[in-house]
Amino acid sequence: MTRLFFATDVHGSEKCWKKFISAGKFYKAEILILGGDMTGKAIVPVLETKEGFKTTFLEQDYTMHSSEETAQMEELIRNRGYYPIRMDSDRIAELEANPENVNKLFVDVAKSTVEKWMDYAEDKLNNSGIKCYVCPGNDDMFEIDEVIRKSGAVELTEGKVVRLSQYHEMISTGWSNPTPWNTHRECSEDELKRKLDRMAEQVENLSQCVFNFHCPPYNSGLDEAPELDKDLRPRYAGRSLIPVGSLAVKETIETYRPLLGLFGHIHEGKGVKKLKKSTCINPGSSYEQGVLMGALVELDKKGVRSYLLTSG
C-alpha cells in the first residue's frame, strides 16, 4: 500500500508550504505531491519613514513602530501569499518611473522565496524517507524551474513519468488551457492535448497511473468558477458559476482511463468525481487564509484503496 498527500495552489503562502512539507510526517504519507501555482501574486512595499515602517496591505494602512512589529507584519504578508519588500521613497519613485523593473524585482523575489522553500524542504525531509514532487502551474514563471531542479529533496516533475511505487506511475503538467489573465504556462487545447499524449505514451500501465494535471477536466464538477464580465469582475456577486476546465484534459482522462486524477487551478472546485473509471480529485485552495487544503490517498495493486479530503 502506498499513501500519498496531494495539495495545490499555495500561491506564495509560506504557512501553506510549511504545512505541506509537514504533511508527510503528520499523515504518515510516503509521498508528497504539489500540483502547481507555487508563487505569490504581488509585491507589497514596506516603506521606511521617520515614524517607522508603513505599508498598505489588502486595502488597509499599517504603521509599525518597532522592528518586532515590522517583522510580524512581514510574516503576515508572506503567509497570505504576497512578497513584502522593504524600500524607501526613492526606491518606490524609481520603480514607478521604470515599470519594467517591477517585473524583474517580482521574478527575483519569487525565485529567492522558492530557494528558501527548497532549503526548508531539504532540512525537514532529509533522512525521512518521504519523497516530494512538485510541478509548477500556469501562474508560475519559468525561472523557478531551475531552482527546484537543483533541490536535493524536491523533484521537478513537469512532463516526466515518475515511478511512485512498484505498481504506480505518475505523469504531471502545470500547463492549462487559455485563461483571461494570459499566464505563463497556458496554450491552446490542441497543444495541451499533444503534451498530454506525449506523456501518456511513455507510461507502462495507464490503468495504474496517476495523472497530476494542474487544470481539471471540463464540466467535471471540479472546474466551476465564478462567471466574469468583460472587465473580469464576478457576475451576480460571484453566485453564477460556469465550467472553465480543459477539454483536452477531459478527453485524455476518458481515453486513457488512469487510476487517479489529481487537479487544482480552480480554487472553488473542491470535490471528488468519477470520470469513466478514474477517481478525480480537486482539493481546492484557501491559501490566503493560511489553510492547506489537501487529499490523502491510499493506493494498492488493486487501485484506489481510500481517499480523504483534508483541511488544516
Overall description:
This is Metallo-dependent phosphatase-like. The two termini are 25 Å apart. 41% of the residues are buried. The chain is 29% helix and 29% strand. It has helices spanning 14-27, 67-79, 89-97, 99-125, 143-149, 189-200, 247-256; strands at residues 2-7, 31-34, 43-49, 52-57, 60-64, 83-87, 131-134, 154-156, 161-163, 169-173, 209-213, 224-226, 241-243, 260-262, 271-275, 278-282, 293-300, 303-311. The mean pLDDT is 96. With 312 residues, it is of the alpha/beta class. It folds into two domains: 2-41 and 106-311, Metallo-dependent phosphatases (Purple Acid Phosphatase, chain A, domain 2); 43-99, no CATH class. The strands form four sheets. A six-stranded mixed beta sheet has the order 8-7-2-1-17-18. A six-stranded mixed beta sheet has the order 9-10-11-14-16-15, with helices on one face.
List the helices and strands and how they pair.
Layout: E1 2-7, H1 14-27, E2 31-34, E3 43-49, E4 52-57, E5 60-64, H2 67-79, E6 83-87, H3 89-97, H4 99-125, E7 131-134, H5 143-149, E8 154-156, E9 161-163, E10 169-173, H6 189-200, E11 209-213, E12 224-226, E13 241-243, H7 247-256, E14 260-262, E15 271-275, E16 278-282, E17 293-300, E18 303-311
Parallel strand pairs: 1-2, 2-7, 3-6, 7-8, 10-11, 11-14, 14-16
Antiparallel strand pairs: 1-17, 3-4, 4-5, 9-10, 12-13, 15-16, 17-18
InterPro entries: Metallo-depent_PP-like
Protein name: Metallo-dependent phosphatase-like
